[in-house]
Every structure is written in structure tokens, then in C-alpha cells.
Amino acid sequence: MKNIYFVLLLLFISPLFTNSALAQCDDVNLVNLTNPGPYDVETLTEADGIRNGPDYSGATIYYPTNAKRPFASIAIVPGFYSFPSSVEEWGPFYASHGIVTIIIGTNNLWDSPEARANALLDALETIKQENSRASSPLEGALNLDQLAVSGWSMGGGGAQRAAVLDNSIAGVVALCPWLPNSQLDHESPVLIFSGEDDTVAPPSQHADLHYNATPSMTDKVLFEIANGDHSVANTPNGGGGSVGRIALSWLKLYVEDNDCYCPLLTDNLLVNPPAASKVEQSFECGLLGIDNQELAIGFYPNPTRNIVYLEILKDVNYELISPLGQPILEGNLTGNNKQIDLSQFPESLYYLNIEGQIIKLIKYN
């Protein structure tokens, strides 16, 4: 009898959960892409106990103090003969939006892009160690599957090369990158900023070639800032603030896996932007659960104690989502015996996302 009451209760409140799941995007809008963001920011240096990486020289970690954990992280390196101060505004900006940021210096000011790539990977190692350092305020607070890299000029070239060297990197933001003879065969979603009037790394000799050298299957954007010089993307305020808004949305979408930022890019920030002299893009994303008419799906039993059987004519990918909108299981449905086992999960209402269609499933014990 208890299970019957539980199922009836879920059937009654399931529309409320549906609204809650979709309402997670309510606060994701252009107005909230501010500089600074909503969270307070503190810093950590080697004086506070963070690791001194051998492949870089000096580091500052910027982190939010009142944001929801776990945090994504990004490592940033400056360009040729430049100090961390040249890109330091990115630290408090990202951290104030909930992304932990480590900004590093180089062992030599004239380090090559390849050396800067290794420096970025070393900085990510420092981030990983902060997650387990007992006296760190970031102990256990980081999602180590959500790591990104960025850099300016030679550092931007190094960021792209870091993604080639480490395929676990979840996202790249290249700021007016300088990298000749680029070999960029990687799968990390990459956002490239360039300046139309950049004479140090002219887009036709660097950023444009980088975009074309990145595989067509890799999600990528090239945003050329009108009248921009070599340092136009050194701060989030570049391009009238477009640089910060686009970079933040890119990291939220691909590094934090927050689909709510997809329409900000596809419908707003990258559509005829006044700050851009050129935009090229090749990426696909979609907002959770809009169209339920494209694919015929049968499923039973529902409610269920464990197995849900699905009748779908073609092979598909699926994602199971908690009532709070958090992905908890994903996989492939193939062949003639398509099923999903919910036995490992507690009784509750779940959402099954199949090619943008949302199916409500009730699990009971």
C-alpha cells in the first residue's frame, strides 16, 4: 500500500518537477553575464600552500567562496615576454561566476607555445592537488572532469596544443593566439578570439588557420573582434564585453555541461554581433526537452521497480536526469532489446532524455 501511495504522489507532483527541471534555465540570460559575477572571490598563492609546479613560475588561484560546489576550473597562461598581470582580469571574472581559475607565469618570458602548453598542464596538476590538499579551502570542491585551458598570444597557441597533448581537457579559450605550423587534431571544444587589426598575430596567419586546422567534428567558434588589436581579448571587457560573455557561456556550456547556455550563443551572442568583423562556427548544442514529436518512442512498464523497456526503431543515445535536473546516467540503446535498469536508484521521479525528448519515469521499491 505504501508503494501505491508513493506512485500516486509522484503522478500528482510530476508536473511540478517538470517545471522545476526546465526552470533551471530561468537565471541564465544575457543580463546575468556580468563583470563581476554574483559570487565573492578569494585567492590562493604558493604562500598559502599551493603547489609550485616545475613547468611554470608562480601561480594565483581565484576561487568563489559562496557558489555551489563542485567547481569547474580553468588554467590561463600569458603570452611572449608577458607577465600574469597581462591576463589577470580573467581570474576574478571567471571565479565570480563559479569557475576556479589558476593564472600562471612562465619559467622563461620567451617560452615557446609548446612550453606554455606544458605549463598549462602542470597548472591543472596543481588544481588537482588542491582538491586533495587537507588545508586547502578547495579540498573536495572541484570537479576534476571539468578542466579547461586558456592563454593569450603564444599562450593561446599553447592552450590549443595542450588540448592535443591531453584529450581530457573539456574546453579551450584561445585569446588572439600565436602559433605557426599548427597541428591541432583534438576534440576539445575550442573558442578562438582574434583581433581584426592584430599585427602581432594577424588572423590570416594564425587564428584563421587554427580554426581551419581544428577537426570539423570538433565544436569550435572563431570570433574576430572588429578593429581589435593583439590585446583586445586580454580582459573580459574586450569587444564591449562580448569577449567575456561569449567565453563564459562557452565554458558553462561545454566545461560545466550546462545546456542552458546554448541558446545564449546560438540565438544571441553569435548572431550578427556588432563587436565582430567575422564569426565562423561549427558546433551543435540543444536546450533540454523541447520537441517531443520527432521520434516515436514506446516504453513500459511505468511506474517500474527496475527495468524500463523501450520501443524505438533506431539506435539512440540516452541521458537519465534526476528531479533536480542533474545527469546521473547515460548510455546507448541499440538492437532489438532496448532497456534501462533503474534498480540502482532510489524511488523517485526521473527524466529520460532521448534526442531532446523528455520522458518521465517513476521508480518505486
TrEMBL record:
GO MF terms held by the record: hydrolase activity
InterPro entries per the UniProt record, alphabetical: AB_hydrolase_fold (IPR029058), PET_hydrolase/cutinase-like (IPR041127), Secre_tail (IPR026444)
Keyword vocabulary terms for this entry: Hydrolase, Signal
SUPFAM superfamilies: alpha/beta-Hydrolases
Signal is among the record's keywords: yes
Name under which the protein is recorded: Secreted hydrolase, alpha/beta family
NCBIfam families named in the record: Por_Secre_tail (TIGR04183)
Signal peptide positions (record): 1-23
Gene3D superfamilies per the UniProt record, alphabetical: alpha/beta hydrolase
Domain PET hydrolase/cutinase-like, first and last residues per copy: 36-267
Record has Endoplasmic reticulum as a keyword: no
Domain annotation Secretion system C-terminal sorting: ranges: 300-357
Top-level taxon of origin: Bacteria
